[in-house]
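User: quick one
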Amino acid sequence: SQTIHQWPATLVQPVGSPLSLECTVEGTSNPNLYWYRQAAGRGLQLLFYSVGIGQISSEVPQNLSASRPQDRQFILSSKKLLLSDSGFYLCAWSQGSTGNTIYFGEGSWLTVV
Amino acid sequence: GQNIDQPTEMTATEGAIVQINCTYQTSGFNGLFWYQQHAGEAPTFLSYNVLDGLEEKGRFSSFLSRSKGYSYLLLKELQMKDSASYLCAVENTGGFKTIFGAGTRLFVKA
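Assistant: Done. Structure below.
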């Protein structure tokens, strides 16, 4: 069966510091991969999605970036965090292009102080 | 543009039935998902509708009308554990960009 893991689960970072969140998927090949962010009391905002290694599409201009160095690995990064980057970050995967459910990782709580 | 609307909060009584509505406007539509999200946790999949009509899955049912841009999630025999946020999500043409609504927080009271 397929599993998705992301880490770290919780982190508190000062403004201006770098960020790296990592996500891996097991039990499938060539998945679509996603990063979503959920601010407190708000909906899920799609940040990036990837349909293959090295292929990244950005949905929202911001100081975040994503990379997919391997088929089942997805990384969210920032060189300098802002206060507004605080939130609940969710990595997710799906298989195929249409009608395929998105499955989420456990989520990472980021607090920028 | 794209827009998904659902009520912010709803309250219902244990054992009752509740209907959570979702309306959407999108430039390209493939299908509609419903997810459940408990506080502090990741969303989990409930249902997917691509054709008009009602899909039943145990205590949960989901309805879609593509012509009206409307869906609802029906929860029967409510239990306290059903207290959660329910997210409506639209899968756009191409399938790679699923857009989520802000969610409806459901409170189930005894």
